[in-house]
Amino acid sequence: MKHLYVIGMIGIMYLMTGCFSNKPTPSSAQNEIEKMCNEAKYTITLGQINDIGQNVLSKQDFRTILDKALRDSGCFVVESKLNNREKGYVLNIEYGLEVKESKKDTSAVSTQSSASLKSEVRFVMSRANYTITQNASSTMKMSGKKYLGIGEEPQVTQEQKERLVQRALKTIFTNLLKI
């Protein structure tokens, strides 16, 4: 009887450990944007970069993600000043990254916490008499439960923020390749 009790307790502890673990399975790819083009399709110069709405990503962090994405895609030649105004584009960008967190008591002994992230990016590429506009968004939802104060609340990491922006940029790049 004592063995049955010990085995039962070990089983309950194993089950509870699984309930409290809400860590996401890490993706093997560190970068959402891989080489998409064998040769550059667009020559651009960066114009204005503006943030929209409530933003939890600094302009400097966004610029770092953007520069790496443009370089890694292989689809863009970035010039400090356009050499050929008829073939090149001035790229103006608006971006936003919003985090909404909420807590809800689900019973007398448990609390449900959730976080929702939304990234929005807008490209406006323009040259004489021609403008291309592309919008993209990416979302992520995370949740966690606490029982009797034990458990984890969802934590938003810098890597998750970067990954959301990369996904939105990848969508824009994919759409631009179809034009």
What does this protein structure show overall?
The protein is elongated, with a radius of gyration of 23 Å. A 6-stranded mixed beta sheet has the order 2-1-3-4-5-6. Helix content is 30%, strand content 39%. 20% of the residues are buried. The chain starts with a helix and ends with a helix. It has helices at residues 2-20, 59-73, 158-177, and strands at 42-51, 76-78, 88-105, 110-127, 130-147, 150-151.
List keywords for this structure.
single chain; 179 residues; alpha/beta; Rossmann fold; 3 helices; 6 strands
Topology of this structure?
Layout: H1 2-20, E1 42-51, H2 59-73, E2 76-78, E3 88-105, E4 110-127, E5 130-147, E6 150-151, H3 158-177
Parallel strand pairs: 1-2, 1-3
Antiparallel strand pairs: 3-4, 4-5, 5-6
Helix pairs in contact: 2-3
Short description:
This protein has 179 residues and is α/β, with parallel strands linked by helices.
Estimate the mean pLDDT confidence.
Answer: 83
CATH class equals: Alpha Beta
CATH architecture classification: 3-Layer(aba) Sandwich
Structural domain count: 1
- Please tally the β strands and state the result: 6
For the CA atoms, what is the radius of gyration? 23 Å
Q: Looking at CATH, which topology would you report?
A: Rossmann fold
Global structural class: alpha/beta
